[in-house]
Every structure is written in C-alpha cells, then in structure tokens.
Design brief:
This protein is an alpha+beta fold. The chain is built from 6 helices and 3 strands. It is 54% helix and 13% strand.
C-alpha cells in the first residue's frame, strides 16, 4: 500500500496543468517525442523537457532513445490508483505531423 506522503507528492506533481496535460497526451498514445509535446502545448522544448524530467523522476513516464530522438510513454503499471484517475482525463488533440517522424 502506498504511503500517504508519497501519494500526496505524486498528486502535487500532477497538480501542475502542464504536467497533467502531458500525461493526458500520453494516455492515448503509446509514446510521443518531445517535439510532439512541444507542438501540442505551444511552448518551448526546454520547458517541456523540464516537466518531463520531473515526471520521469517520479516514475510516471519512461523514455526510450532511438537515434537522436527521445520518446516518452506512461509508466503506471505499478500505480493502479493513478491509472484510474488518468483514465478520466479528457482526450487531448494529438499532433498531426512531427519533425522526428518525418525524418525517421
């Protein structure tokens, strides 16, 4: 059973609209590149990377590298209490064309 303090920290992390939006984007996709997320959020790559770093540190997302591109996906297998919450998030508009997929 998860400790209340650890759960509070995770919920606080997800209390940020940008991070919650990233989670919502990832819930409907197997994985997304940073450039995909930048396009959807209309923000900068450093800003998205900073949020992803925090989500990765909390073990909510994982990354996989393919060439110069880093892809992110949800990592909620051991967090069913969060999975149920995330399942309730509204669908997000997904990126149409992305820079890394065009060059792959």
């Amino acid at each position: 059973m998860i400790q209340l303090e650890a759960m509070a920290d995770l919920l606080k992390l997800l209390g940020d609209k940008t991070r919650l939006t990233i989670i919502a984007l990832l819930k409907n996709r197997e994985e997304l590149c940073v450039c995909d997320i930048v396009e959807c959020l209309h923000t900068t790559q450093p800003n998205v990377s900073q949020h992803l770093r925090k989500l990765k540190a909390a073990d909510l997302v994982r990354e996989s590298r393919r060439g110069q591109w880093v892809y992110y996906s949800l990592s909620l297998e051991d967090k069913p209490y969060l999975q149920r919450l995330i399942d309730e998030l509204p669908p997000m508009e997904q990126p149409a064309n992305t820079c890394c997929r065009d060059e792959a």
